[in-house]
Amino acid sequence: MLSDIEIAQNASLKPIEEIAEKLGIKRDELEFYGKYKAKISDEYLERIKDNKNGRLILVTAINPTPAGEGKTTTTVGLGQAFAQLGKNAVIALREPSLGPCFGIKGGAAGGGMSQVVPMEDLNLHFTGDFHAITSANNLLAAMLDNHIQQGNELGIDTRQVIWKRCEDMNDRALRNVVVGLGSKADGYVREDHFVITVASEIMAILCLAEDMKDLKEKLSRIIVAYTAGGKPVTAGDLKAVGAMAALLKDAIKPNIIQTLEHTPALVHGGPFANIAHGCNSVRATKAALKMADYCITEAGFGADLGAEKFLDIKCRKAGLFVDAVVLVATVRALKYNGGVAKEDLGKEDLDALRAGIVNLEKHIENLKKYNVPIVVTLNSFVSDTVSETDFVKEFCESRGAKFAISNVWEKGGKGGIELAEKVLEALEEPSYYKPIYPDNLSLKEKIEVIAKEVYGADGVDILPAAAKMLDKLETLGFSDLPVCMAKTQYSLSDDPKKLGRPKDFDITVRDVYVSAGAGFVVALTGDVMTMPGLPKNPAAYNIDVDDNGKITGLF
Question: For the residues 83-111, what does the mean pLDDT come to?
Fold first, then answer.
């Protein structure tokens, strides 16, 4: 059996201008990065801005397990299936982070016969967007420290510097560092921190910005520190906005590539859903809606994270309206939630399936609270039995969700025809989408709504430091912002070991901070980290490049 990278490397790709031509994009409206990837120019985006919007389809999943769910694979396969049915569809995905690629999770190109390509380029440096974001983030950090060194005219309290440096790699040794060591000329000694690039507010801003003007306005509002009197100090105060925007002038443009079956895919931005808002860029999503009759996009990790933030943050901020949601699960993952060890997941076990399907049940209930049509799809494995599949089908349909089997990993678009037809049926139903909480609730109330309604918690334990910051942010006028919950992806609770549908638990909020530029307040729960670490045997051990420049071991 061929690996994902071998399938991708054996694929026959079309020049990207041929893919773009399907969407009416002229050659001179592309900015090429080799033969098979390009950025879409501002001129084209301006030309289509008055086009009628297509239908927006969100793909999400149950909580991830070591058994795998295949959310991106399903998203890509569904887009290919729409093309098989003669429908005009565009896929909108996030860019992968280098951290998971060299760590443990893997990339974000899909898998099997449902991948976006060139796969190696996408999973590594792609068009340099993440490098530009990293540079802009660290330029702001450098200008902040330089301002303190050069007299600190703004009166920054060095104990209240909240802006962190970043890099797009898992590096736990950089979580907590000290900068400015050495002589007086080497800077002011203080504690500092690094986050992974996908957790940077610059990433969130890039993904929520409508255009360059909006990007600069959002950048200017970034709070980097506070004065001794508690006054916020912003990137605008540091006069950093113009230079940061210059670094991001190309990164803000959406990227276009193709699937193995030559379906167009816009891949742009990549915040993590467990520590950020977890969706691709507003620019790419809105462009896809103007380009095609259907935009098929995804949100990161489980529906309790990515979908909640897509529906409560991205749609709210961008004025997007979701027409239908696809919820991905696997028999194997449901049995894992039911207590079956990973090595035994290939055996039929209806009792474990019955025990673990409560995780899927909770996600169905959650999505119904947003008043959108739901289609549940089982990403098929050869070990699935008819009895197991029938049980899941009956379970979903009895709860008001449509159901379809997906074989897109094995068969590409043809394996997603059943799913595509069910989604088209769902699109015939009315969607009454609305966020789960209104703007005028307090920040604490918004946290409680998400914890109770989405996670199923009994309540919220807000630690003293977080409570103090919530009061401060309310006083500073940020109470109308949505909340971005940073939580483990592995459980509906904030404890990754609590699988299935946990009960009798509280959510612990240990810290809170405002991403004033992006326009949301972040609440850190449990032990979630904004700078991951590498595992004992990182994926990097298996990655290599031969004498001819061919990459191996990348999934």
Answer: 90
